[in-house]
Write a structure and sequence with these properties.
Rossmann fold, single chain, seven-stranded mixed beta sheet, 7 strands, alpha/beta, globular, binds S-adenosylmethionine
Length: 235
């Protein structure tokens, strides 16, 4: 993947936080998805669909772009404008209550959203695993706290995040939360390298939320937080 192919799509209109295309680029470099055109990928918490576009273009597979806050109609309009309306199906469902077919997806991607709904042991087994095909791959990139500060999110991050601080967990904590299951072959969680680029590209949009985040970057975001990459491979 060459991120420059997507520069025209990265803007204050499509970004909802640190550059999701940048985060996806690192995940794809580390764990390239090898999919056929009839395979299906779930982009869970896709926001305004930038990552869905990248997944569709880079893999050639069919993409289900699911989000809660952004309507399927709004995303459908963008996908039509971007010329990928045939390849990407927009859906608006709560990740706690998805209605896809069992075993439907060969891959699941989730950027900057999984921490909103999946931070409890058992969520992956009960709410995600049923929809994944055998040998499916999961790629997740989310903001979190560095391993050395695990367990201290509320104390360290509340001035920036308020009541959402508890959602920030460390790579080691996420590996434990996803846990073990007889269908899981491997889980890896690590601190991603794209942290500084993803944040600075968000600040460059001058979005009003980006300006708010920027005020906390040197004192809270940079010293205590990271981007957590998570890779899961099924048997
Ligand atoms: C910060 S935005 C990121 C969006 C996009 N992935 C990106 O990186 O630009 C977080 C997204 O998580 C989604 N989200 C939060 N809770 C959700 C839930 N329970 N089910 C589905 N999506 C959810 C929201 O709809 C929102 O678009």
């Amino acid at each position: 993947m060459n991120i420059n192919d997507y520069t025209n799509y990265m803007s204050s209109e499509t970004l909802m936080g640190p550059n999701s295309a940048r985060v996806l680029e690192e995940l794809f470099k580390k764990y390239p998805l090898q999919l056929e055109k009839d395979d299906t990928v779930l982009d869970l918490g896709c926001g305004k669909g930038l990552t869905s576009l990248v997944i569709a273009k880079e893999t050639g597979a069919k993409v289900y772009a699911n989000d809660l806050w952004i309507s399927a109609e709004e995303n459908a309009g963008r996908f039509e404008d971007w010329g990928v309306g045939e390849q990407i199906t927009p859906v608006c469902e709560d990740a706690n209550d998805l209605s896809f077919d069992k075993g439907q997806f060969q891959a699941l991607v989730s950027i900057d959203s999984y921490h909103y709904f999946a931070g409890k042991v058992g969520f992956f087994d009960n709410k995600i695993l049923p929809f994944l095909d055998d040998k499916a791959v999961v790629l997740i990139g989310i903001p979190g706290i560095k391993d050395e500060y695990a367990g201290h999110s509320e104390e360290l991050l509340s001035d920036w995040l308020g009541e959402e601080a508890y959602m920030f967990k460390s790579p080691r904590e996420w590996k434990e939360i996803i846990g073990d299951h007889s269908r899981i072959e491997k889980v890896e969680a690590w601190e991603m390298e794209c942290f500084e680029n993803a944040w600075s590209e968000w600040f460059a949009t001058n979005h009003k939320y980006a300006c708010g985040d920027k005020q906390h970057f040197e004192t809270i975001i940079k010293p205590y937080t990271c981007f957590v990459g998570i890779f899961v491979k099924l048997k």
